[in-house]
Amino acid sequence: MSWHRHALHRRLGEYRMRLVTLGVIVGCLCLDPIQSVKAASWTSAKFPGEQSRAVQGCGDNAQNVGDWLCIVVRCDHPGSPLSLHLSVPEPDIEGDIELVTDENAFALSVARSVDALPLSTRAVTVPHGLINAMKSGHVIVIHGSRLQPPYNQISLENSRTAIERVEGACASPFQGATRFLQRIGRRIGVF
């Protein structure tokens, strides 16, 4: 009788351990989406009429109440290269600056322009490789402006999906097919 009771006690202990393990796994799965929602800093642009052709990523750290720092990637018109805009409260970011994504540094000139979005300045040209670095990077840092760390940083988490949506809207039909094949290749591990 005591052997039977000991075996039953042992089985209950195993079931408890399995239940605890299952609870930990379910807890981890439930908490992961909460973290990804918090990091969803890349969204459609908040400028009126720009939601379908521009996306923005904004910094999480504001130095003062009402401050913001956003980078906007925009399709000016179908078939054109993407443009880049910086939006901050006055005074605007102007002149020569450097954008650093992970280990990659890109020098660019930013100026007020009639083509700029409201409350923003526009990069005169977008350096080769910057958009791809933004899509694959973790954080972008702005050097050479009045902004100091950590107020000069924007997370790039979730930027790939947002930027590729604007690229698709801006691409000519042939470019769209090429990007589609590249995305499929990345997913299966070819590119």
Q: Quote the distance from N terminus to C terminus.
A: 65 Å
Helix proportion: 25-40%
Strand arrangement across the biggest beta sheet: 1-2-3-4-7-6-5-8-9
Mean pLDDT comes to 78
List the total number of helices.
4
Radius of gyration equals 24 Å
Low-confidence stretches: 17-40
Task: Just name the CATH architecture of the largest domain.
Answer: Sandwich
Predict the CATH topology of the largest domain: Immunoglobulin-like
User: What percent of residues are in strands?
Assistant: 15-25%
CATH class of the largest domain: Mainly Beta
Q: What does the model show?
A:
- The protein is α+β, with helices and mostly antiparallel strands.
- It folds into two domains: 1-38; 42-185, Immunoglobulin-like.
- It is 38% helix and 24% strand.
- It has four helices and nine strands; from the N terminus they run αβββββββαββαα.
- Strand 5 (95-101) and strand 6 form a beta hairpin.
- The protein is globular and about 45 Å long.
- It starts with a helix and ends with a helix.
- The model is unreliable at 17-40 (pLDDT under 50).
